[in-house]
User: Fold Fibronectin type-III domain-containing protein from Chiloscyllium punctatum.
Amino acid sequence: MYLKLTIIFCAIIVLLHIIDTTVGQAIGDDVAKQYGQIGGSVTLTCDNTDNGAVEWKLNDSKIIQTRNVELTRTKLILFNINVSQEGQYRCHNPESGKIYRTISLMLGYPPGKPQVTCQSVRYPLNVVCLWKLENQTYLPTRTTALYRYGVEDLKQCSTAEELQGTCTIEGIQLFSKISYTVKVTATNPLGSRSTITQFIVEKIIKPDPPTEVNISPIPNQPKKLLLQWKPPVTWPDPNLFLLKYRIMYWPKGSTRYQMIEINDQTSYILSGLRSRAVYFVKVAAKDFVDNGMFSDWSPTVSARLWSN
Assistant:
């Protein structure tokens, strides 16, 4: 009986030792993050505090020295790294299994300069600046945008939660020769790049395309078509801030087109057309006093001329 109790007691002690060792390694096995540039070199350092032997593993596969891999007692140096070398690195004692350090290596590129475009689609209410990066970074990259009017203090752009990558400037100054300045900065763990853009509001007006464009034959008019449309829905007040329109039209099968411009109207009769032909038409809009630029073209519509 005494011998049985002794054996049980010893087994409990061994079990407690195993549990204590396992928990201790798990608690001490913190994962550090490190970043590297694809095509460059990275040095990973092992916290070998007890001067024991060191072995490196990537995702549980042993790492050996090669032309692009250098191993020292405390460091792993990777040259000309590529995406296949991204992952979790561990340096540990190959005899005891003790883990000295775990490093999560993430690879990518520093951000390029943001490419910024600013336009006033909803003139005179606001200006919206959009941007994209020159390159894909493959790393978490954050962008910030600041603006100012003239020499005023820099202000944070207002950006809706669902419109990341945009900067909206409200309460814009109209008919001013003083420039706005917008600074967009992209930052990730490998670096930071900025772009500074300046503009005068009236020079960047660009309406959205006209809507509800429709073309139809006119009864008893074999050489005329009626074209109708509506101002862009995003243009706040077409009765106060007037628009002019550009019309492009051409007959089916032709590579030549005709273009006309008209002011402040939303219908037009195309005349002198080929009898019984099918014509294609699209419309663009611009600020009435010729500020800024024309919108993109509306979707193309078509109709056949009236015939008996």
Notes: The chain has three domains: 24-108, 114-203, 211-304. The two ends are 117 Å apart (CA to CA).
